[in-house]
Amino acid sequence: MITVILRTAILFIFVTIAIRIMGKKQISEMQPNELVVTILLSEIAAIPLQDTSQPIINGIIAVFVLVILEIAISVLTLKSAFVRRLMNGQSVVIIKNGVIDQHAMKKVRMTVLDLIELLRIQNVFDISTVAFAVLEVNGDLSVLLKSEHQPATFKDLDKKKPEAALLQLPVITDGKIIHDSLQALELTATEVDKILKNNNTRLNQVFLLTLDRKKNMTLIKMR
Amino acid sequence: MKRIIPAVIILVLILTAFFGSYFYINDVCKTAYDGVESCLKEYEEHGTARADSAWLRNYWDEKEKILSFFVNHELIDKVELSISNLELHSKYKDNYMFFEACDTVKILLHQIMEDTKLTTHSVF
Question: Chain B window 27-46: which residues touch A at a Cβ cutoff of 8 Å?
Fold first, then answer.
C-alpha cells in the first residue's frame, strides 16, 4: 500500500513538472500535437501506478520524452511554416460575403448545422450578415460581420469618448482589509475607515467593499 | 528559450540514465552469468556448488536494489528465486534440478540484457 502511495506521489510531482514545462493551455486552445501529448501523458503515468512491478523510472522517462518531443515540435512550428501547416493545419474561410463556401465545408467535414451552431455561439443568427467566417485550427469559428451590421462605436456616432473604465478592487472581504488592494489603489487604512464611518458601518460588519481609484464603491454589509 | 533550456537538461538526464542503466545492467548480468558458469564448473569438479551459489545469491541480493530502478521487478524476483533453487539443488545434489536452475538463471539474465538493447524486436 505504502509503495502505491509513494509511487503516486512521485509520478504526480513529475507529471506536474512536465505540464509546467509544456505551458498551460485550455484543451480547446490546444494544437493537435499538444492534445496528443496531454492524452498520452495521463495514460503513460497510469501504467507504473497500476503495475507496481514496472520500474517507476520507465514512466518518468516516457513522460519527459513526450515533453521534449512537444517542445521540439513547437520550436520547429515557430521556425518553419511547412511544419506549422503539417502539425496544426490551416484556418479555412467558411463564409465569404454572406455566402457559404460548400467546398471548404466538405474539406473540413463540417455540416451546415455545425456551422449554424458555431455562428449562434458567436451571437450571429443571420448568415447574410457575415462578411467573413474563418474556422480556426483549434476548431473555433471567428466571425467578422459586414460593416453595416457591426455594433456602432463612439467614433461612428461621432460622440465624445467616455471616461476610461476604472477597475474596482475588493478592499474588505469578510470584515478583513486586503492590504494588497489598498496598495494598488494608493489608499491608506485611515481613508478606508473614513469611508466606513461615512456609511455608518464598522469593519467587522462589512461583507464586501470594493473601491476604484476615484473612490467609487460597492458596499455589501454582513447579514 | 524558456522551455528549451529545461528540455535540453531533461534530454541530457535521460541520456545519462539510459547509458548509465545500460552499462550497469550489462555489467551486473555478465558478472552474475559468470557466477552461474563457475557454479556449474564447481559442481562438475567437486559435486557441489554451495560456495559459488552462496556468493551468487549474495551478489544478486546486493545488486537487485539498484537494478530494480531499471528492470522489471518480476524478472528480478524470478532470478532471485532461481538462484535460491540453484543453491538448494546443489546442497541436495539433485543433478537434474541443479542444471535446470542454472539454465533458468542464464536465460533470465540473457533476457534482462536483451531488454536493454535497441533492437527491432524491443522497439516493435
Answer: none
Q: For residue B109, give the nearest of B58, B67, B63, B75 by alpha carbon.
A: B75
Inter-chain CB proximity A61 and B4 less than 8 Å: no
Interface test with A, best of B9, B12, B13, B14 (most A CBs within 10 A): B14
**pLDDT recorded at residue A22:** 74
Point out the residue among A21, A61, A72 whose CB comes nearest to the CB of B6.
Answer: A21
Whole-number Å distance between alpha carbons of A113 and A130: 16
Task: Report the pLDDT value the prediction gives residue A142, as an integer from 0 to 100.
Answer: 94
Alpha helix stretches (DSSP H) within A80-211: 81-88, 102-107, 112-121, 154-157, 179-185, 189-198
A55·B72 Cβ contact <8 A? yes
Report pTM: 0.65
**Cβ <8 Å between B17 and A61:** yes
Question: pLDDT band at residue A94, thresholds of 50, 70 and 90?
Answer: very high
pLDDT digits (tens, 9 = 90+) for A42-69: 888 888 888 878 888 888 888 889 888 8
Task: Give how far B83 is from chain A: nearest CA, Å.
Answer: 20
- How much of chain A is helix, strand and coil, in % rounded to 5? 55, 15, 30
What's the gap in Å between the CA of A18 and the closest CA on chain B? 10
- Mean pLDDT, to the nearest integer, of A11-26? 76
Residues of chain A contacting residue B4, judged by C-beta atoms under 8 Å apart: 71, 75
pLDDT of res. A1: 67
The most distant pair of C-alpha atoms in chain A lies apart, rounded to whole Å, by: 74
Check if CATH label 3.40.390.30 holds for domain A92-150: no
What is the CATH architecture assignment of A166-221?
A: 2-Layer Sandwich (3.30)
Q: Where are the domains of chain A?
A: 2-87, 92-150, 166-221
Q: How far is CA B35 from CA A158, B28, B89, in A?
A: 94, 10, 16
- Of A54, A61, A71, which has the smallest distance from its Cβ to B3's Cβ? A71
Per-block mean pLDDT, blocks of 10 residues, chain B (124 long) = 82 90 93 90 80 88 90 91 88 84 92 84 69
